[in-house]
Write a structure and sequence with these properties.
Radius of gyration: 21 Å
Helix content: under 10%
CATH superfamily of the largest domain: Cupredoxins -  blue copper proteins
Strand content: 35-45%
Distance between the termini: 29 Å
CATH class of the largest domain: Mainly Beta
Bound molecules: CU-O-CU linkage, copper (II) ion
CATH architecture of the largest domain: Sandwich
Signal peptide: 1-26
CATH topology of the largest domain: Immunoglobulin-like
Structural class: mainly beta
Largest sheet: 8 strands, mixed
Number of domains: 3
Keywords: Metal-binding, Oxidoreductase, Signal
Oligomer: single chain
InterPro entries: Cu-oxidase-like_N (IPR011707), Cu-oxidase_C (IPR011706), Cu-oxidase_fam (IPR045087), Cu_oxidase_Cu_BS (IPR002355), Cupredoxin (IPR008972)
GO molecular function: copper ion binding; oxidoreductase activity
Number of helices: 6
Number of strands: 35
Organism: Pseudosulfitobacter pseudonitzschiae
Length: 495
């Protein structure tokens, strides 16, 4: 199962101008936004999540080979209730080992769906998940080491909503009416209109970026919303692309939740950055009835090779520094809202825990092994099994535990990166961000997180209260999936 591709890096693969040869095919945008089906998962039996192969016509007349849970691409929206057990049978009907990782959930390591829990085609994995998490928007995806980027790209991902029956949710919350999931992904299509994933050396270094925008599996779709307050649950499920979301008319909106759940109060803004795997819930006021588009600008990942994968206003590949916004999806406004609040509350029922002072500090440096850039001339700098990324000088090794973290103790984790910006993710808990890019941040504006963009020195306060044994440890890693697969990952026990 170990991927050995990186051993064969040569000067020739380095020279392949993959980013220059891609062409976006004329897309057919504007179709209605698909709304994922809801699967309520409780303690009863019979909830099956089957990973399967499929085909989907993202562009008419061109069927792409895809993967999905219970469907051809992506999966149902799983709804779990805090305080109840969620029993689910994950069935593998694909051709390869898969997992189902509950990204952001606080469950013990043996239920987490990390790389050690990969299971083969024909098998079923039946975790009983104790749902012990505030109301939040999470997600699930496959997490097989060396295959995560490919499997998620082809469709093995979906959204999770956790509901808390004991908390009042004062925000719009009629799913599919004034509360919508928006799973945002960039994808490439070949000349015949089929979705393609062919990362070259540059893509492995920078992370793979596509030239077309998909939301819930449809190219630049349209959603008709009521003329009222609407909640949008944004998930950046892209392999590597960061977004600076805004509306094309510059309108203000409010962020009400981040990765781990509600913020203490809505935050007014005109733009929102989301790195891979981050979530944000926003509330948008559509009472003026004007149609708008959700757009983004390119965000450079910095580093030695610049931004790459530029788009222009048409969503096509641009030629470099063009920084015009590109379209993600559009909104039409229908009749006046019949349900939901007319105004936003001044404060929200969030429970930001007091993590107290840290009892110890740990340092993490996210490395790109630069020797690999030289076409293998400096093979000693390529990590274990040819992996080209690492943390603290080591590429991920499934067989060795990097850290043993005591349960229930607050720690300060200091994260730095050489050359590029990376979204750093930790399994098994949510954390508070103390500083980002060397600057102090207000936790009330950021909330509880499980991914933080490391763009300069970053510090987080973290505490674990779920156990992870050495057979099924928790991961910390870069959520640029090509980086994760290339070894920018570590693993730890909690006990
Ligand atoms: Cu989104 Cu280690 O996962
Ligand atoms: Cu995760
Ligand atoms: Cu990275």
């Amino acid at each position: 199962m170990k991927r050995r591709r990186f051993l064969t890096l040569t000067a020739a693969t380095l020279a392949t101008p993959a980013l220059l040869t891609r062409r976006a095919v004329a897309a057919e945008p504007g179709a209605p936004l698909p709304i994922p089906q809801v699967m309520e998962v409780g303690p009863g039996a019979g909830n099956t999540l089957t990973a399967m192969k499929g085909t989907r016509e993202f562009m008419s007349g061109a069927a792409s080979d895809t993967l999905g849970y219970e469907q051809d691409y992506l999966g149902p929206l799983l709804r779990f209730q805090r305080g109840r057990t969620a029993n689910i049978d994950v069935v593998n009907r694909t051709d390869d080992p898969i997992t189902a990782h509950w990204h952001g959930m606080h469950v013990p390591g043996h239920l987490d769906g990390g790389p050690q829990l990969a299971f083969d085609p024909g098998r079923t994995w039946s975790p009983e998940l104790p749902v012990d998490h505030p109301a939040a928007t999470l997600w699930y995806h496959s997490h097989v080491h060396g295959r995560t980027a490919d499997q998620v790209y082809r469709g093995l991902a979906g959204m999770i909503i956790i509901d808390d029956p004991d908390a009042v949710d004062p925000l719009p919350r009629d799913y599919g009416t004034n509360d919508f999931p928006l799973i945002v992904q960039d994808r490439n299509f070949d000349r015949s209109g089929r979705m393609s994933y062919d990362p070259g050396m540059m893509d492995r270094m920078q992370g793979f970026r596509g030239t077309e925008m998909l939301v819930n599996g449809a190219i630049r779709p349209t959603l008709t919303v009521p003329a009222g307050l609407v909640r949008l649950r944004l998930l950046n499920a892209s392999n590597a692309r960061m977004y600076d979301f805004s509306f094309n008319d510059g309108r203000q909106f409010h962020q009400v939740a981040s990765d781990g759940g509600l913020l203490p109060a809505p935050i007014a803004m005109n733009g929102l950055r989301l790195a891979p795997a981050e979530r944000a819930e926003i509330v948008v006021n559509f009472t003026d009835r004007s149609a708008v588009r959700l757009v983004s600008r390119n965000v450079s990942s910095g580093g030695m090779m610049g931004g790459g994968g530029m788009m222009n206003g048409g969503g096509k590949m641009g030629s470099g520094s063009d920084d015009a916004p590109f379209e993600i999806m559009s909104f039409d406004v229908g009749d006046a809202a019949e349900t939901g609040p007319a105004t936003l509350p001044a404060s929200l029922p969030s429970d930001l825990p007091d993590l107290g002072a840290p009892v110890r500090t740990r340092d993490f440096t996210l490395n790109v092994h630069t020797g690999s850039m030289m076409g293998g001339m400096f093979n000693n700098l390529i990590g274990r099994d040819g992996q080209i990324m690492g943390i603290n000088g080591e590429s991920y090794d499934m067989g060795s535990i990097d850290l043993a973290v005591p349960m229930g103790e607050t720690e300060l984790w200091r994260i730095n990166a050489d050359m590029m910006v990376h979204p750093f993710h930790v399994h098994g808990t949510s954390f508070q961000v103390v500083t980002m890019g060397g600057r102090a941040v207000d936790p009330a504006r950021i909330g509880m997180k499980d991914v933080v963009l490391v763009d300069g020195p970053t510090e987080i306060l973290v505490r674990f209260d779920k156990r992870a044994e050495k057979e099924t440890p928790f991961m910390y890693h870069c959520h640029i999936l090509e980086h994760e697969d290339a070894g920018m990952m570590g693993q730890f026990t909690v006990g």
